[in-house]
Structures are given as structure tokens and as C-alpha cells.
Amino acid sequence: YGKLSCVRAVFSAAGELPLFAVIAIIFLLTGTMDISGIIEYQAVNGPLVLQLPLAAIMFFTLIVTKSPYSPFGITKGKEIISGFETEHFGMLRGYIMFSESIAWYILLWLFLTIFFGPISVVGYVIGMIIICIITGFINATTPMLNPNHSVMAQISIAVICTVGSIIMIII
Known about the structure:
Distance between the termini: 49 Å
Helix content: over 70%
Largest sheet: none
Shape: globular
Number of helices: 9
Structural class: mainly alpha
Number of strands: 0
Radius of gyration: 17 Å
């Protein structure tokens, strides 16, 4: 189980490559990594989802990866019998699950803010509901991928979308 755990940790870290690619692409276009600077850029130039749709797809892939019962869920594999899901119980597990829920909604907020700009509270709620429905449908209809296939799919999406986004920035 030790070797499996190490491989799982490396695969999990490799699955974060689309996030780094999105950050780099947004920085190349906006010249800042500050959320308020990105919002100011969008106030002048329009939403980033129209300028960088491939980067939005990469970030959405990351959202699907982080969602519960994701096909990319390397760390939540059914064959894994250790980890916080079985080792922690009671209040500690409740705190861990609560923090995962908060992290999920922060990720949704970041996606909506970075790619759609400043929107109202109602817009955020509607956007989060729509994203939850879409990811729920994807997770319900897609089987869990093998860790090798999961990482290769994420890296392939990252490479294609990064190259496409850089070409879109240049043109």
C-alpha cells in the first residue's frame, strides 16, 4: 500500500498541471495574477471566457477533477482502503468534509470571477448551481478512470488548451 500511496500522490500532483497552465495564460493576457487586477482587465476588455475559452475549459477540467465522485478522482479510487476516509471518523471527519465543501465553492467562485468578471450575488448562485449540475451529470455518466489514464487525459487537455490559448493571445 505504501507504493500505491506514493504513486497516487505523484499522479495527484501531476493533475494540477492544468491549473498552472491557466494561471500562466491569464498572466500572459492580463499582466497580473491579482484577482482585482483581472476583474479590472475584464471591466475594460470584456469577460475572459470570450477571450480565452480554452483556458476556461482547462479550469473547468480542474473543477471536474476536484468534484465529488469525479472520473479523474485518483485519490478517491474504490480500490483504495486507506486515507482520511477510513482513518478519521466523528468530528474530525466532519471538519475534513466541511473544509472540502468550502474548497469546492471557493473553486467555483474563482472560476466565475476569473472568467466571467464581476457578477452579482444572484449571478454567482445561478452560475454555481449550473456548474454543479453539469459536473454532477459528468460524474454520474462517466466511469472512474485508471490513474494513468486520468493524468494523461488531464495533461492532454492542458497541452491542447495551452497551445490553443497562446495562439489565440498572439493572434
